[in-house]
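so my prof wants the structure for this chain in the tokens format not the other one, which i didnt know existed until like an hour ago. anyway here's the sequence
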Amino acid sequence: MSKNKTFYRCTNCSYQSIKWIGCCPGCNEWNSFAEQTTSFSGSMASGAKVGSTATPTRLFSINEISVESQIRMQSGVKEWDTVLGGGILPGSFIILTGDPGIGKSTLLLQIANKIAENKKVAYFSSEESLQQVKGRALRLNINNQNLLFSDESCLENIISTCEQAKPDLMILDSIQNCHLSTQSHAYPGTIAQLREAAFNLMRFSKENNVAVLITGHITKDGHMAGPKILEHMVDAVFYLQGEDRWQVRILRSVKNRFGTINEVGFFEMHEQGLVEIGNINQYLISEASASPGSALVCCMEGSRPLLLELQALCVDSKFGIPQRVVTGLDSKQIVLIAAILEKYLHIKFSTQDIFFKVSGGFKIKESSADLGIALALLSSYFQKQLPKKSVAVAEISLTGQIKPVNQIGAAVKEATRFGLETILTAKNQGIKGDCRTVGFQNVYELLSLFPE
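here's what i got, hopefully its the right format
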């Protein structure tokens, strides 16, 4: 005889409770508990073994598993294809997220139009009407008969339509605005809805070998909205980010099971849509200024070297506690470099207000920018320029030693390509090339760039 038991489970962390709770004790998420019912048969209740009635499945050795080579769907947009690892793989489940109005729908519509030249693409817009989608398509000069549209928002109907139409690529914009008719308690945008929708889309993608590309919202902190399990379910996660000075959009890979992560692609927003930028360093170099407090560094984004300008401003503090205002870098990294310089060069940065930023709105996470940070601080403190057409690439240890970095060859090649003549780096870096190299062994030697 079966017995039904009702309990409540957190849709975010699977914490269980015998009664409904407003805030989950496990993950502190509000309104995340959903009622569930489980059935226990008489045999199970009497102590029968779990799995005694289940059907065993076959196990395969590694040599018995067949692998079919699949051709990626290339869009012809080099920046997009590079970030995705060569194109969209059939049967993959991909999510693209970013700020509202950043250009996610515009980019997907352009990519869908390119792929539809050789493949069948179904585009479901759960946020906008078909009239709005057509208005954008006319602005982008899109008129492809293999690109099919729908404003359906019921996920069951979307999956059923794709099972019948059999597209090569299915695009859903966005997953937060679709709903499931079988779950009345899972409203669009809730954690329960996102989890169930992602699971159904993942199963559809894998079972039918259809590439599924969805868009997602982000939170006010800049992270992808929804439970963390959503990022685990998908095969790839891409962020489309804006830049604060130009109309530049950065496509960044943070997870990719079929390619490398940390790859970036650059686009520029025009009236006709997003146009790829094949040479982003041309923008960055043109904005760099040769003035006190400015230093050029070269950082690797995936396989691409970027020439970025660091700007520092050091002034005597007017308050009891000096200010540290940092943009584009971890503020602790600036504090650390300033402490190293104060320790060994006896420069009182602890009495200085430090304002620091990465020009262009980019973010740097590499330690190879340590030397550039130190030189920018010293340049601002002494109010003297660094050597013209120079770029700094090196790491600084806590003992004040200048350390070599990896992938210096790509940085030197990119710097030489744009007319930079001097490489400021570690003395034992071992650079090959025609460019002039100035090596430093420790932070004491940095003062030679700022003579009295």
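also thought this was worth mentioning. The longest strand covers residues 304-316.
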